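wait is this the right file?? whatever heres the structure
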């Protein structure tokens, strides 16, 4: 009986998360002078009620630092306020599809953007930067991990992104399948998270031995890294565009163009995202 009650509560919470009625700690408002995370349970409706003229930006959780920096600069230069919803790609697309609210999508991978485009949620994409996968191990590499193939070694504690919720989770799934080690890796997985940020927290806390992250998420104080072989086969392309249901399409397009400008790409480079068109990743196709 107790298990049935707990399952019912879990299903209710998941439903609320998807519809945007319950979004713990992921919504932020920006203006020309400040950027503040909203803690606790905050709804999209509540946030927009407090900022009725603002643009609502849906952005991948791993893009938070450059996107907020770009938003602040954009507001300073244009006077247009922006607010954000930072989530894993699966949650973002579900919220967009259900609510039809918001103005811009910035996805951590072009596959997620293409899914939104196929659903008619967004228009033509612009490409901004690269999300480069990399193996992250604990500082000093105590488990002597030397390659992605070592994820299959028995006894490792592995943390990975959720395959359906995160771009890095989808990428990892493809990588492990290509190497023929997906089943062995899964036996070592102790946590799958709905955002890449949660994987970083697990690595920083020492609760996992190894993870597949991206260059921009690496903390040199707590992690060492190992490159992914043939990485260009797995590099993600950050894609953005205006929603098809924006009530402020001209302002939305203005923000999209600003993100795609040299100034916007410089913000991404500042946080270890190679800019789209970088010579090293010229063979990567969105």
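ok assuming it is, sequence goes like this
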């Amino acid at each position: 009986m107790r298990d049935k009650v707990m399952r019912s509560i879990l299903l209710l919470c998941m439903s609320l998360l998807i519809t945007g009625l319950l979004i713990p700690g992921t919504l932020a408002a920006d203006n020309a002078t400040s950027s503040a995370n909203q803690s606790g349970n905050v709804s999209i409706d509540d946030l927009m009620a407090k900022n009725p003229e603002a643009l609502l930006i849906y952005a991948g959780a791993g893009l938070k630092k450059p996107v907020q920096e770009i938003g602040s600069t954009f507001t300073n230069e244009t006077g247009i306020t922006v607010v954000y919803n930072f989530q894993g790609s699966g949650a973002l697309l579900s919220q967009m599809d259900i609510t039809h609210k918001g103005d811009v999508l910035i996805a951590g991978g072009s596959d997620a953007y293409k899914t939104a485009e196929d659903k008619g949620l967004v228009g033509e994409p612009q490409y901004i930067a690269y999300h480069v996968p990399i193996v992250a191990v604990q500082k000093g590499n105590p488990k002597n991990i030397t390659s992605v193939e070592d994820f299959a070694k028995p006894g490792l504690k592995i943390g990975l992104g959720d395959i359906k919720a995160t771009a890095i989770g989808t990428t990892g799934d493809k990588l492990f399948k290509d190497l023929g080690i997906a089943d062995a890796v899964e036996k070592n997985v102790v946590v799958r998270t709905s955002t890449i940020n949660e994987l970083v927290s697990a690595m920083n806390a020492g609760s996992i031995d190894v993870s597949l992250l991206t260059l921009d998420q690496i903390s040199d104080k707590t992690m060492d890294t190992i490159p992914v072989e043939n990485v260009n086969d797995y590099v993600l392309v950050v894609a953005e565009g205006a929603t098809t249901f924006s009530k402020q399409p001209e302002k939305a397009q203005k923000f999209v163009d600003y993100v795609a400008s040299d100034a916007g790409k410089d913000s991404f480079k500042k946080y270890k995202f190679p800019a789209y068109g970088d010579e090293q990743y010229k063979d990567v196709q969105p």
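Residues 130 and 274 are 5 Å apart (CA to CA). so i think its the right one actually
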